[in-house]
Amino acid sequence: MSDQKKKSFFSKRDLVEFGVIAGLAAFLYVMGWHTEVIGTLQRGLLATGIIRPDITVDESEFKRANYNMPLISLDGEHMSLQDFEGKTIFLNFWATWCPPCIAEMPNIQKLYEDFVQNEDIVFVMLSLDEDPEKARAFMERKEYTMPVYFLTRGKPGVYDSTVVPTTYVISPEGNIVMEKRGMANYNTNAFRGFLSNL
């Protein structure tokens, strides 16, 4: 086979491969599965342990939590972050349209299961979805049991991150002792110890 024919052959094969990949991507997008597929791929990155929250506590950098944040639960119950004042709060802003959120959810669910009986530690999974039914359907499909809430007005300035997901840990004393913008693996012994020791 001449060099020109080889080039032509490989060029056609490359085009076919690209077409298959593009077609698959378009299919996933049209079906609405692209977010979960990307999230699943990103979960592999989390499994490496490279991306984790910074839990080194430097009291001079603490910000004060703002508890004036009205919420509504997935079941329609009106409440406020203030209802959890005096407890350790794991506050996670997430959305069903966010692949990194999808990636970190299984690890947060496992962490939640470890602490569900501990009344001093609460999880506030704050969905940024405009349609609460999307969040409900996602939680039910994945069989996640973490409590989900929605904002009834804008976020207080101290939580005004433009990155989704963003996670905060608020101490019982009302200090934001951890802020992580972007996904992370929270289901580690180090992080469990961090929460327990607050």
Give the SSE map.
Elements: H1 3-31, H2 34-47, E1 63-64, E2 70-73, E3 78-80, E4 88-94, H3 99-115, E5 121-127, H4 132-142, E6 148-151, E7 166-170, E8 175-181, H5 189-197
Quick structural gist:
By secondary structure, this protein is an alpha+beta fold. The protein contains five helices and eight strands.
Q: Number of helical segments?
A: 5
CATH topology: Glutaredoxin
Question: Count the strands?
Answer: 8
CATH class: Alpha Beta
| Helix fraction by DSSP (H/I, runs of at least 4) | 40-55%
Overall body shape: globular
Radius of gyration: 21 Å
Could you report the average pLDDT, rounded to the nearest whole number? Answer: 85
Strand order of the largest sheet: 1-8-7-4-5-6-2-3
Which residues form runs of ≥5 with pLDDT under 50?
18-31
The termini sit apart by 71 Å
Strand % is 15-25%
Largest beta-sheet details? 8 strands, mixed
Structural class, judged by helices and strands?
alpha+beta
CATH architecture: 3-Layer(aba) Sandwich
Task: Report what the structure shows.
It is a single chain. With 198 residues, this protein is of the alpha+beta class. The protein has one domain: Glutaredoxin (3-Layer(aba) Sandwich). Helix 2 packs across helix 3. The longest helix has 29 residues. It starts with a helix and ends with a helix. About 7% of the residues have low confidence.
